[in-house]
């Protein structure tokens, strides 16, 4: 017997009592909440396929406190079989591992006709689902309980990656973009502080470094405070980014990277990261970046993944002081030289080298 890996729920008169568009304040059906939470604890994923307007239906799921349990939702007016197939494709699950719950016999018949491998249940079967053998995976590990969160994180990452595509390289090249990366001066610092404060969307650590914090590090031999400026054929963008890097012989530690949201679509974050990777490679050092997920900086996480940072373990991590807050992730890369950016002209200071004597 194949275990069910994902249950796809209809909404009207199945998950909730009544029809949202007619009855408004619908409430969950009996047994539904218990069933959803128990399936979730068993590592069985859940999704929604409903004929409704997406926005009010999803909002109602949120109000009912159950939206978080669903890893995928197809809410619209197309055939249910297409919705169920899209969900299976998205999760990369075989149709034999998908179940579908719907109160309407015609909808179950439509799914069964096009997708005979999918198990279809009427709404009256909800109270019995948990006792069926196919909903009782032989082992429930900690991993399977975390499965939902990890699918949801992947879905968000995919969505961000799609939105990260941005303008075409051809268009970017037509802008004659230039980027300069220099050691920050005291004059740069107030603008830098503003960047770490105001561009929370692009602040990879969510940590605020004050003007005084950064000023104190300007003369510290192990720290590099870097200012990023950009311009294009229409004129200067001014200071658009700041980075704080602690350099050591074996490992470089990127403690702060923040860029202005105005330059996100120019790939500014990834350009700075690729440059740092090349500099670290030239110095023979590994590169570790602090990343603390916040509600607004996911696009920065995409830049890290995009440039090759991972959570892989490396002995060099042991050389860093512990982050201490329990939320900051250490993303690691073993650097290799990167090609120069092909959509902008980069001029940058050389790091990790003794400055030429004057
Ligand atoms: Zn390392």
UniProtKB/TrEMBL annotation:
UniProt-listed InterPro entries: Acyl_CoA_acyltransferase (IPR016181), FkbH_domain (IPR010037), HAD-like_sf (IPR036412), HAD_sf (IPR023214), HAD_SF_ppase_IIIC (IPR010033)
Residue ranges, annotated region (Disordered): 140-164
Protein's UniProt name: FkbH
Organism lineage string: Bacteria, Bacillati, Actinomycetota, Actinomycetes, Pseudonocardiales
């Amino acid at each position: 017997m194949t275990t069910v890996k994902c249950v796809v729920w209809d909404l009207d008169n199945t998950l909730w009592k009544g029809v949202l568009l007619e009855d408004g304040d619908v409430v969950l059906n009996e047994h539904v909440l218990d069933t959803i939470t128990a399936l979730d604890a068993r590592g069985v994923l859940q999704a929604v396929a409903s004929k409704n307007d997406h926005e009010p239906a999803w909002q109602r799921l949120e109000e009912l406190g159950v939206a978080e349990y669903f890893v995928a939702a197809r809410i619209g007016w197309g055939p249910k079989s297409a919705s169920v197939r899209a969900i299976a494709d998205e999760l990369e699950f075989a149709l034999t591992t998908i179940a579908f719950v719907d109160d309407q016999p015609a909808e179950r018949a439509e799914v069964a006709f096009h997708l005979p491998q999918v198990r279809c249940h009427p709404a009256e079967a909800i109270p019995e689902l948990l006792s069926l053998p196919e909903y009782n995976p032989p082992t429930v590990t900690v991993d399977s309980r975390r499965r939902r969160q990890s699918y949801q994180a992947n879905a968000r990452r995919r969505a961000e990656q799609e939105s990260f595509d941005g303008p075409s390289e051809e268009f970017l090249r037509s802008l004659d973009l230039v980027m300069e990366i220099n050691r920050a001066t005291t004059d740069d610092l107030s603008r830098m502080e503003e960047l770490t404060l105001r561009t929370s969307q692009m602040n990879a650590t969510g940590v605020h470094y004050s003007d005084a914090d950064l000023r104190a590090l300007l003369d510290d031999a192990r720290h590099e405070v870097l200012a990023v400026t950009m311009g294009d054929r229409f004129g200067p963008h001014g200071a658009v980014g700041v980075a704080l890097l602690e350099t050591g012989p074996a490992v470089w530690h990127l403690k702060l990277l923040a860029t202005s949201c105005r330059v996100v679509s120019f790939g500014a974050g990834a350009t700075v990261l690729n440059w740092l990777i090349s500099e670290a490679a030239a110095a023979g050092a590994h590169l570790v970046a602090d990343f603390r997920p916040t509600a607004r900086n996911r696009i920065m996480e995409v830049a890290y993944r995009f440039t090759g940072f991972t959570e892989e373990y490396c002995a060099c991590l042991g050389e860093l002081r512990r982050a201490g807050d329990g939320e900051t992730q250490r993303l690691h890369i073993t650097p290799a030289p990167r090609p120069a950016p092909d959509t902008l002209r980069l001029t940058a200071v050389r790091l990790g080298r003794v400055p030429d004597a004057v």
